Amino acid sequence: MRPIRSILLALLTTLTLLWLLSMDLSGLKPSYFSIRYFVVQYSGVLLMGIMSVAMVLALRLPAIERITGGLDKAYRLHKWLGIATLVVGALHWYWAKGTKYLVRSGILERPQRGARPELDPASIEALLRSQKKLAEIAGEWAFYLLLGLLVLSLLKRVRYSLFRYSHKLIAATYLIFVFHSVVLLRFDQWLTPNGIALALLMTLGSVAAVVSLFDRIGRRRRVHGQITQAEIEPDPSVIRLTVDTHGRWPGHRDGQFAYLGFKGESPHPYTLSASDRGDGKISFSIKALGDHTTELLQQTQAGTLTGQCVTVEGPYGQFGFDHSASEQIWIAGGIGLAAFTARLDALAHQPAAQKQPARITLFYCTRAASPESIAQLESLAQQAGIQLKVIDSAKRDRLDVQDLDAVVTDWQDTAVWFCGPTHFGLTLKAAVRKHNARIDFHRELFEMR
């Protein structure tokens, strides 16, 4: 989470400093309307900077993954930028529009304005000023729409397809805000560092919005394939799919994931559960947790999933296992095990993957797992040469740091990988950091919304 917080703080700080360097604050007086003028300008700059970066993050660019430490981190930052948009947008609305309602109701009295200088009717500034009323109305109603769409996006119970379409509407709303900002930003600001930076951000954000509206996000990383095998694993709520891309798949690293798209359904992210063999065949382990995944389980039971054509987009993710530590601790919670099975598969069946730390321990945290699934995992772990510890919460308390203490010989030379429920991961991370504040704790934030 530190990179996410650092990037968010750096963005807000940079936008603030650029604004301060570009504005003449000598006219700021201790009066409501004097403060209002500067707050409206500042909050507007913050709002457009935040929204622009959020739009670019949604493009799933490889460069963004490298900067944020993985697509999961990029989307977590994207989420926090959405929350920041709500907060800053509400602040901007109050000072810009709420003040006008207070004036109309008689609570506030607007001071008299001086006469504005005459402009050349053919100038760009005159053209922008002529659009002021339209820009104000468009911005106000765009904010109301954006407010509803962002709240909808943050509700995890909303079906994924509706969530995806709401984000397309957000892209359209963003373009309205660009128009609003171009017209209402002080004209003399455009040649300042603040205006130049804002113009660049809004240009990039507008390109990203158009890409989103035309469904071009990730298009170059998509390949077509066919499901050649669909079977129910020993856990009756989990299915394993094998997709043949007929050599089109570019390959992936252990621990990465991809977006899997079915006809008539929005693509969903799933972990690649087998190592890359270079033959264009890839596997996914999918747990029935929602409407779409339950439908996949039912189709597998009916035998109708095999043979279906799909699209695969990726690979994504930075959940790699290369590390110089002499010990590795892997912690899998539920279906989070899929993030580790590809590496287990590589260690068990590919000689080139045998370069590993002296000691690896996998803790698999589950509840009432079937004996068959545990037996399969034990066999794979044995072939991979790693130690397996099964923590069944139906029989005992959940995993805690004392369990890790029992196997770790040197916390100073240990790295931890975690994939599972968010709260569980945060609790473990805090406990592990008490042993070694600088320990590498790799956590997959597998929440794309």
UniProtKB/TrEMBL annotation:
The keyword Hydrolase does not apply. Pfam families: FAD_binding_8, Ferric_reduct. Its cofactor is FAD. It is a multi-pass membrane protein. SUPFAM superfamilies: Ferredoxin reductase-like, C-terminal NADP-linked domain, Riboflavin synthase domain-like. Residues 220-322 form the FAD-binding FR-type domain. The keyword Protease does not apply. It is found in: Membrane. The chain crosses the membrane at residues 39-59, 80-96, 137-155, 167-187, 193-214. Keywords: 2Fe-2S, FAD, Flavoprotein, Iron, Iron-sulfur, Membrane, Metal-binding, Oxidoreductase, Transmembrane, Transmembrane helix. PANTHER family: 1,2-PHENYLACETYL-COA EPOXIDASE, SUBUNIT E, NADH OXIDOREDUCTASE HCR. This is Ferric reductase-like transmembrane domain-containing protein.
